[in-house]
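Example record

The entry below shows one chain as it appears in the dataset: sequence first, then structure tokens.
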Amino acid sequence: MDVPPVWFMRQAGRYLAEYRALRAKHSLLELCHHPALAAEVTLQPIARLGVDAAILFADILLPFEPLGLGLSFAAGEGPQIERPIRDAAAVRRLPAPDPAQSLDYVLEAARLVASALPADVPLIGFAGAPFTLASYAIEGGGSRTFTRTKAFMYQEPDAWHLLLERLAEFVGCYLAAQAAAGARALQLFDSWVGCLSPQDYRSYVQPHTRRTLALAAQSGVPVIHFGTGTAPFLEDFAAAGGDVIGVDWRIPIDQAFDRVGPTRAVQGNLDPAVLLAPATVRERQVRDVLARAGARAGFIFNLGHGVLPETPVEAVRAVVEQVHGG
């Protein structure tokens, strides 16, 4: 196409009235566990926004259920891990489930969506990266400081690497299974990896992410490698793999292209909060991203993270129209 494709992380979610109507009847996990409902949510933004891709509705923490860690969502508090990993013995006790069986409901949702989408709108499958999953598993939920995660990483390095090895195998196979179910692209979310120093990323995370992405790449579909806060080690992050490198708003998109190199596409990177700004501010910042990307091949317009719940639908639609209008 003559203009960049555009889609949004969390484009199916709480800012849409039709999604809130479903959530009034079903919990988040119910929506995820029932393929027809997950497919309905995935499809909601396509006609409403005019985006160029669908992103499968699921949650990155769903693997914790077959891994025996337990998962629930408390109102207003985010995810709660019932049996967090706090020692090496807990890592060794982890089972090795087959994602194609243990998360078959996600794959069925992918099949339903793929069969319902227009031919020119691809479905994107996704999963959480080993580090981000490990951080939730060790912290027992979300965190601002990742103190438990880093302490485990430093104090129990053998158990740490074993944990990430197991997560890498599971996630890589899970992504490949989504492609087999109809996803025409895949995205690996490393949402919290920016809390690490460049040296720690290289030592404790990069080899496991590389393994995950290599397994996903065996599916034959393009793979997007996305992280936040990766500007201090973007070259190392890109070296872990991925056909497309997703970046957040903390680095200008032209600098990201220069640092990633000419062989990779780049996705990003409008600050999600800009969608809450006055139209003149929003339009100026969208123009800046587009101008910095210029005529480079392989640019995908997106946010630097997910759509915020309080975002007006009209603002999201207006960004799509602006990007498509050049």
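Notes for this example: The radius of gyration is 19 Å. DSSP finds 14 helices and nine strands in the chain.
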